[in-house]
Amino acid sequence: MKKFTALLLVLIMALSMAACGQTAPPAAEAPAADTTAEAEAPAENVTITMWVSGAGPQVEAMQAAVKAFEDETGYTVEFSAPGETYEELMKTKMAANDMPDVFDTHGWSVARYSDYLMPVNELDFVQYVDPQIAPVITDEDGNMFVLPFDMSIEGIVYNVDVCEEAGVNVDDIKTWTDMEAAFDKVLAIGKNPVHMGGANNFTVGWFYDRVAPSYFITNPNGNLAADLKAGNFDETVWAEISAMLDSWVSKGYLNEDCVTGEYTADVASIAENETAFLFYGNIAVPIALSMNPDVNLGMMPLPAKTADDDVTLISGENVALGISKDSKVKDAAIELLNYLAQPDVAKAIPEATGNKPALTNVKVDLGMIQPYLDKYSGVRAFPFFDREYCPSGLWDTICASGQDVLAQKDGAVESTAKLVKDTFNDKFGA
């Protein structure tokens, strides 16, 4: 059970993370090319502080690589992986201007952390950054701030066998109305259409992160992206999304304990062929396989709100490391990033997360999820909603207020929409 829980802890940071879950051009220049170790302590006295988000396999893979780096260089790396508390601790670090030498931006290298990072434009690995992810981690001045290991190309994870048993062809699911028709078929065979451990509010946030783009930004005929960027949030649209979630609870599309259940049961349920769909990233696949090697899983695009729109995917950086612009051991930190960027080292992260490598010289076999990434390579992708269109700090409100909708509290659909709007306005102004 301990191993099971440890494996599933990695799902906390799959988004995207909470805070997943956003902020300005860098204040410092890249270190001069002639900077030498003379300005630093001898190797045996060099200590690099390093913080990473996430947990489970991806952290274990990073720790192993860092240990090998220590053995090779003689440096000491003070490695920390605070898990769920990462974001709050990092906010404290930012406020105190006391950043780790190397840290994980988990999707926010430009929007949230660029003020605190040195550009890495001149480092060797930059030439191998996949063009699909390069714009996401590059600011308007052309500065790149991180070494990206993997990139999220995500939709909805589903159990192939459960869907086949129910007579569901996911290729026929183009809209959320189509999705509900599929849910009805799954219910008819006595399975859970969707499993959601709502006691952990980030699972509710993942629902909103996957549904919100189809309501706000993906349809050219009703695109509100510019409004959001300008600080205008339409609470009536958010209420529509919440109303859909509320109706799913009423219709029995979610597990009976969706309000009180833990997220640890979500992947277990799909691994045990009891659930058809998860609003999770691809990280669910390797974890489910560790629990049931015979489970047959796939990934499908996100449906549209209306028939005049198209299905979509979510994209963004996942595990990515940058160097503090104020680090006193920049040279050593650069050595660390260059070491971790080596193909044989870097591949451990996408292997652990089930995501596409972010470096073109890293080759990884993603197993059963690879055919789906290939199949949907032509499907348009949009950034994680909370990262691109929400001010920093709104994620927490989305998750917490979503729990009230999940619990079907009186007036929750309207009251939470107002709360999200008020928080949006407050955070945007700040």
Helical proportion? 25-40%
The ordered H/E elements are: HEHEHEEEEHHEHHHHEHEEEHHHEHEHHH
Structural class: alpha/beta
How many structurally independent domains?
2
Reported by name, the CATH topology of the largest domain is: D-Maltodextrin-Binding Protein, domain 2
The CATH architecture of the largest domain can be given as 3-Layer(aba) Sandwich
Number of strands: 13
In the CATH hierarchy, what is the superfamily of the largest domain?
A: Periplasmic binding protein-like II
CA-based gyration radius: 21 Å
Low-confidence stretches: 1-41
Give the mean pLDDT. 89
Proportion of strand residues: 5-15%
Task: Count the DSSP helices.
Answer: 17
Through-space gap between termini: 43 Å
Large-scale geometry: globular
Give structural notes:
It is a single chain. By secondary structure, this protein is α/β, with parallel strands linked by helices. It folds into two domains: 2-152 and 317-366, Periplasmic binding protein-like II (D-Maltodextrin-Binding Protein, domain 2, 3-Layer(aba) Sandwich); 154-315 and 384-429, D-Maltodextrin-Binding Protein, domain 2, CATH 3.40.190. The chain contains 17 helices and 13 strands. It has helices at 2-9, 57-73, 86-96, 160-166, 176-188, 202-216, 225-229, 235-250, 264-271, 284-291, 330-340, 343-346, 348-353, 370-375, 385-389, 394-406, 412-429, and strands at 47-51, 76-80, 102-104, 147-148, 150-154, 156-159, 192-194, 275-278, 297-300, 313-317, 320-323, 356-357, 381-383. The chain has a five-stranded mixed β-sheet with strand order 2-1-3-11-4, covered by helices on one side. A four-stranded mixed β-sheet has the order 12-5-10-13. The protein has a four-stranded mixed β-sheet with strand order 7-8-6-9, with helices on both faces. The longest helix has 18 residues, at 412-429. The chain starts with a helix and ends with a helix. The model is unreliable at 1-41 (pLDDT under 50).
